Amino acid sequence: MNEFLASSRDTWREGAAPARLPRELESIDRSAGPRERLDAWRERHRLRGERARTFFRESRNPERGLPVAHTRPALRFVGRLMRRRPGLFAGVLVFNALAAIAGLVVPRLLGDLVDDATTGRATLDAVDRILLGVAVLVVAQAALTFCARRSAALFGYDMLAHAREEVVDTVLRLPLSRVESASSGDLLTRITSDVNKMSVGVRWAMPHLLTSGVLVVLTLVALFWNSWFLALPILLSIAVLTFAVRGYLRDAGPGYITESGSYSTINSTLTETFEGARTVEALGLGERRRQQLADDIAVSAQAERYTLSLRNILFSFLDIAYQAPQVGVVLLGTWGYSQGWVTIGQITTASIYLQQLVGPMDRLIAVFDQLQVTLAATTRLLGIAEVPDDREPGGAMPAGTQLVGRDLRFAYREGHDVLHGVDLALRPGERLAVVGPSGSGKSTLGRLLAGINRPRTGEVTVGGADVMDLPLDVLRTEVCLVTQEHHVFVGTVRDNVVLAREQDADAAAVREALDAVGALDWVDRLPSGLDTMLGRGRTELTPAQAQQIALARLMVADPHTLVLDEATSLIDPRTARHLEGSMDALLTDRTVVAIAHRLHTAHDADRIAVVIDGRIAEIGSHTELLVADGEYARLWHTWRS
Amino acid sequence: MHDFPPQVDTFAPGARDAPDTRSPNRFLLWMMRVQGDVVLAMVLLQSIWQLPGALSPLLVGRAIDAGVLRNDMLATLGWAGLLLLVIVVAAGAGILSHTLIVRSWLIAGYGTQQRAERKAGRLGHVLSRRVPTGEVLSIASSDADAFGATLEVFARAVSSVVTFAVICAIMLTTSPMLGIVVLVASPLIVAAGAPVLRPLSRAQRDERTQNSELTSRATDIVAGLRILRGIGGEHTFGENYRRQSQRVRGLGVRVGTWQGVVDTVSVLLSGLLLVGIVYLGTHEMAAGRLTVGALISFVGYAIYLVWPLQTMFEFAQKWIAGQVAAQKTTAYLDADEPWLPAEGAVGPAPRLVDEASGVVVEPGLFTAVVSADPDSTAALADRLGRYLPGLAPSAGAEEAPDEDELAASVPFYRRGRVLRDARAARQARRAEVARADAERAARPWGVTADGIDYGALALGELRRRVVVSDTQSMLFAGTLQEAVDPWGAHSRADAESALTTACAEDVFEALPGGWQGRIDEKGRGLSGGQRQRVVLARALLLDPPVLVLVEPTSAVDAHTEARIAERLVAHRRGRTTVVTTASPLLLHRADVVSLVVDGREVARGRHDDLLALPAYRRVVARGMEDEDE
User: Is it the case that residue B393 has pLDDT exceeding 80?
Assistant: First the structure.
């Protein structure tokens, strides 16, 4: 209590919450002169940039959650994906190049025609024949465009499918201790939103990078080939563009990540307000929720203003860089024509090329923008693979079924042990209830016994072998941790039950397990029996049926020891009566450790262990503990009074 | 001029910006009126920004005719200077117009979010009886965005019409024949793309549906990952995911292929148009009716014109999307709370009587209500707090089949009708609930405070006097201090005392940073028991005259429950408390216990006395009979 009070004083905040935005960003002095206002805008832009970079850094290195990979492995990953189908990749490049070349020859020929017509060198008939040739070329260009697009689609979607399947495989290899700890929110975000971001990148940005990249390069080549003299203005544009785009891309990444982060914040605030509408009404929190949204929007508006300024700076360069070469071509053209260096046809061709360059250049910039987002998403996805494994399967196999824990200590945070040297030997076939106040370490003890976490000191052995050195598929058939979750997967009934022995169990084994828990009757009545698809939007099960499926899974796994956490929650009280038989079938002939909240569960057990402050305070049968007149006895009497 | 973030006072008393919800189109127009100055300026600047597109082919052509061909450097300089001027003016207008686009987009977006939030604030718990929360959320996210997009495309479309008109005028005055060819051909080119757009959009829809199925497979794997890693099944579900992923890949290639067809058609037609113009142009030139410069201008226009035309098609599509969004939004903004205005005052320590069950809540006492059916005590708590009951899942969630899925399930010619019918049926169901609510609110409520029916009392005051903390009570994201004291109005000593009473010290200790430790949205990351105890501490800190707690310790272990029971009674001494529970640990401490069977109170007294009743023992002492009998 004293410790609680001391740190309470230190961490309690008196007065209003600190403002979420610095004051400089909130107030704008509209009466100042243009010079002062420009300076003030520069200062605000700098501040916003700093905020964006800070947010970006923090989002890349989260305090909690899964790790994030570095950029280099992400690039290597993309490179590896691209090399997977070298033939297809080459096809994409070749078709795009050919389509681009065809598209570039057309304006060149048209320019020549204009020359011929101007100078009257060729007859109209000859001109018409050439035009017919041009028309054929246009058709060829169209056909090549189709091949280019289709090969890009084949290539892009293949890469994407492979990438996401690899990510899911990684998720399915995550260490058990990691899976069991804390929330799945981070993983969920990665596997949905980051995979989507990567999809857009791979599906849209990669093909466009190839298509537009090839087109821009070849158009530039064609411009010079047409007339190097008339191509000079574009060189200046390219220099300006490189400068402006590089600056933009450097700042835009953090800018857009901050922006989308600010929208996630708005969305969570709104989700809470809508879903918690009753709580807001009951506790009179309306004004506060409104203020919270206003604050979130104010922060988001600053992020929007930052990227707006970045885009405006970029666009001012782009507009000039795209259009100014036209002026240059006219000016140089006049001079060059008078000197006899260029023809009208060349001027025409150059002018068309310049117009044709705008589209692909724009797309290329958008592609670079998108690729940054893709890369950031990829680093987060690859980060999943960087979770270290804490299990090194050794050669020792269990000889026997006795589970023994010796000198178990464990800490979630360094220096804060939640278990202080627990010794516990289970008697095969017994039912042991573990009770104790919340935070006493009883759930942790269950996780160590089930081989989920490696204890800091001591070891848990089954038949003499350390549980942390057993391969997972062996461990599962020895001891299983059962929590209150009874998730029904999207898949057939068989898929949902066969889990632990998916490699070798046949339909008979599945049916036997379903029969044992009393589920075979209703499964056989399903439209396709064992092959009926379950899960959201398909055949939906009642809570009792879902629980029977969960029990059948364990029957298939057939471990000799079960650790039941919050055993009462596994069975919803409303369906409890109905499921008693199923549960009994599962528990018969097995060693059971039940981490109990409710005392009547404990009362039925062979032995009861009372865990207090990370130690087993007392252990024995119900009667023995009542005689001992300790913690358990006191609680029992309160309960019964 | 209006700027973002917008000042929204919709739904406030005397608000000026009451939305026009009479029809989707009126609502979209209202959206524009709210920021009329921005939209007008946006249209103007967009038109100026498009000038180089409209004028530069003309100016380049003139420069060639007047300057280049005649070797007249001065004339070239003049035309080139004009071109440069147009470019610079347009670049300036481009920046301003982009700024305005973002501004109007965000005024519409942030504004919609704030209006949706205000409405939720007014509806309170009735919200979930009007619209599923998922739909409100999509109004505040995707629809809010759709309005921005609608305004943007509107401005672009108007300026495209202007540009198109300017180009027409230029072309027709230069060469009527060529002008007419370009004018007729370019809309045809855009229209020719339409037939291939239909299979493309069908392919896109299929891909979207299967892709969201793929995402839900991935979510499914993550949601059940504990089971997959704990018990097994990685191979089966990894393989299921791979199969679906390959299906999506196939559909994606189909989308890509149709996209390729669309691009191919566009390349083919615009290329052929170019050839046609040059063909006609060279013949006109040979006949002396056209200059070289004019021909070059026409080539330029033939390339450029596709763009404003595409914008107009885009406008048609996006305006429809805007109407759909407007329809959803107006339906929500029109929803109303059913309460009739009432002025009656609530006393500082009211005596509450529930007529339906006969339960009486005496002021200053700790009353426990126990029933074999937890739903009936939860309903009692709702009545005591004057809350309409939550909808049964079948009626409330009304998981209307996804429109994409519905559309995919019928042939295309029946699609519009099916979707309309589904929407109408949904609206009728909702209207039915709203009507029933209004009827319920018009009748006497059936609970009295000091003898006055709730229906005659001012709702705001009642909410301050009688606070119900039910099992659905939500924790909001923020610091632990904000979770316990969301009002920011209580002292540290009071907060410590509330936290101690709720036995939630372990939450304080587990969070790095103590009071400033972060709690995630909806209290995710805390265990069920921890969440329940923080919610309890919050209700205790509010310290209302009447506090109704529904199953406050259902997720807490027996040790902790015993401690909470002892502290809770001491903490609330002197004020009115109602607890619904079946736990003997809590019942044992209550001043009065009321046993409710089939919705009616059948016995009332102290726990120890009631234990003599078999009916009471059956509910309370579950799992203990065996020993006694």
Answer: no
Kindly indicate whether the domain formed by A403-640 is annotated with CATH number 3.40.50.300.
yes
Nearest residue on chain A to B621, judged by CA atoms? A640
Residue type, B184: V
Rg (Cα) of chain B, in Å, rounded?
35
Please give the model's pTM, rounded to 2 decimal places.
0.83
Strand order in the sheet with B546-550: B466-469, B546-550, B576-580, B366-371, B592-597, B600-605
CB B465 within 8 A of CB B457: no
List the structure tokens of A376: 């950031």
**Distance, CA of A92 to CA of A106 (rounded, Å):** 22
Asked if residue A301 lies in contact with residue A198, where contact means CB atoms within 8 angstroms, the answer is no
Is the pLDDT score of B270 beyond 90?
no
- Dihedrals φ, ψ of A419, to 5°? -120, 135
For B1-174+306-337, the fitting CATH number among 2.40.30.20, 3.40.50.300, 3.90.1150.10, 1.20.1560.10 is 1.20.1560.10
The CA distance from A351 to the nearest CA of chain B, in Å, is 8
Question: What is the percent of chain B with per-residue pLDDT over 90, rounded to a whole number?
Answer: 44
List the domain boundaries for chain B.
1-174+306-337, 176-289, 402-444, 455-628
pLDDT for the residue A623: 92
CATH code for residues A65-227+373-387: 1.20.1560.10
- Answer positive or negative: Cα dihedral of A467, A473, A474, A480: positive
Cβ of residue A196 closer than 8 Å to a chain B Cβ: yes
Residue A283: per-residue pLDDT: 95
The angle, 0 to 180 degrees and rounded to 10, between the axes of the packed helices B176-223 and B306-334 is 50
Residue with tokens 């001079």: A335
The region, left, alpha or beta by phi > 0 then psi within -120 to 50, assigned to residue B410 is beta
Residue whose pair of structure tokens reads 């089949």 in the numeric block: B401
**Three-state secondary structure along B372-432?**
CCHHHHHHHHHHHHCCCCCCCHHHHCCCCCCHHHHHHHCCHHHHHHHHHHHHHHHHHHHHH
Cβ contact B472–A278 (<8 Å): yes
Residue range B455-628 in CATH 3.90.1150.10? no
For residues B368 and B359, the answer to whether their CB atoms sit within 8 Å is: no
- Based on C-alpha coordinates, what's the Rg of chain A? 35
Beta carbons of B282 and A186 less than 8 angstroms apart: no
Contacts of residue B120, Cβ cutoff 8 Å, sequence gap at least 6: A273, A274, A277, A280, B127, B136
Name the strand (E) or helix (H) holding A611: strand A607-612
CB–CB contact A500 B231 (8 Å): yes
Residues 6+ apart with CB under 8 A from B517: A11, B479, B480, B508, B511
Q: Given CA atoms B203, B208, B211, B213 in this order, what sign does their dihedral have?
A: negative
Residue A499: DSSP 8-state? G
The conformational region for residue A306 under phi > 0 = left, psi -120 to 50 = alpha, else beta, is alpha
Choose from B132-141, B387-396, B401-410 the range with maximum mean pLDDT: B132-141
Which residue among A268, A281, A502 places its CB closest to the CB of B125?
A: A281
**Residues B92-124 pLDDT 10s:** 998 999 999 999 999 999 999 999 999 999 999
pLDDT at B194 over 90: no
| CB atoms B4 and A280 under 8 Å | no
**546-585 of A, contacting B, C-beta below 8 A:** 553-554, 557
- In angstroms, the separation between the Cα of residue A476 and the nearest Cα of chain B is 6
Q: Which of A184, A281, A599 sits opposite B124 (nearest CB)?
A: A281
Enter the ipTM: 0.88
Q: How far apart are CA A130 and CA B462, in angstroms?
A: 89
CB contact under 8 A, B106 and A110: no
C-beta separation of A433 from A568 below 8 A: no
